[in-house]
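Running this now, will post back.
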Amino acid sequence: MKKISSILIVGGGTSGWMAAAYLSKLLFDVRITLVESRRIPVIGVGEATVPLINNFMRRIGFPEPRMWMNDCDATFKTAILFENWAEQGDRYCHPFDYLDYVDARHHVGHCWLHWRQNGQEEFRPKQSFYDSFFCSSVLNLGRHLMPASSEFAYHFDAHLFADLLRRTSANVQHLIDDVVEVKLTETGDVECLETAAHGSISADLYLDCTGFQRRLISAIDPNLHFQANSRSLFTDRAVVLRFPYQSEEDCERQMFPYVRASARSAGWIWTIPLYSKISTGYVYSSCFLSEEQAELELRRYWGEERTRPAGALKLKFQTGCLERLWLKNCVAIGLAGGFVEPLESTGLAITQTGVEFLGSMLDARYYDDGIIARYNMHLHKFYTDIINFIIVHYGLTQREDTAFWRAVKHETWFPDELRARLDTFRRYLPTFSTRGTSEAWMFGDFSWFSILLGMNFAFDSQHPPATSLESAMEIRLQKQRFIEEMTPKLPNHYRYLRSTRNPPPAAPS
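Update: finished.
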């Protein structure tokens, strides 16, 4: 057993400050130091999150969104809208509402499929499922109203979010410095860090939050295996733009409470509406599109005149994760541990899960090889689950109109584990029993069913009992009544935010 009385975090940015803010609250008697360099740029663009972020914010002292949203240029997020993924002109959504169950084995998805498969015309369009059983589909995606349920996430400026976390981490020693050398012991643990201004600094445990550089963990093992997923996910580049809204009317129309993911010639374009600006980016494959072509396609998507003043941020990435994220006395957090392309907004959720799981394992202020093995097993499983979920967004497409989409349709590799899961989902649908509820999954039954339905997955015929079908129809009527009641009461998303906040802060230089 190795005692923990001090933790040294290397790297600022979102991952470093999420770790500092959370662990300083949880491990209140552990000395925590964060070292960040002013010479290393932080990768920070408009971020979209998942509802899991609410747990994190409550735990670090922000029980209400209004306590922090204005500081981060934040807006609400209730879903993801997918355009042109299954085929050109197609749309579907991934809402955050829960699936309603009508008996121990069946939810409303089984009933809707039964009605559709039996030729009921009103259920023929797949959008009828989302509109029938997810109020956010009508209220938020359709009408751009503020959230009507407690299941929501946020869009926010990552730089401002990191700055907020820094301000809430009063007990964390903050050093502006450069690490010039990572010194190891004879057993391969980190002994200390040599810094340019503060000399030698050390701790019992080190968190590598240095992004793709992996400054600490790669020093322990330069040959540490990175499990890439390039056979299944072809995108490896992104070009990002940010520009202001054009008018009040533009704010009401474009500041919608969801992320739009629009599939394009060699990947997809995101739209993340922050409060003061729009963040947009083209995630694409460099095998099918050059950097110049990608930027041009993104600018033309929005209009070249509108985007001309906006400078482009260009990123390279590889989807996958380290084989081991905790090695010796060093834990890789955030981008240092791995990366999953941003289609389902999992970046901060991965960081959050890594930090929270680490905190729970250090509750006794000790760790050993068994704890390290458990951490690596659970985090690797968490990554794998997310990656499998992203694969189905691409691999089930019917598009063949460009070289990229032809390759995606015919060459995407489905891991055996994913194939087996899809076979189960085909027969029984994603449910509590087929998806699992006790594991630290990123995506539950409603997420898998929403995406598979959206991608025209061929489910087997469903035969719920008559009593369950009656219950599902009553639930549908209840949802319709709720929508009718709330529509005149809920303001436009932008107008609501404008009425509850001060002018947005300036981004740090």
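The longest helix spans residues 369-395. More later if anyone needs it.
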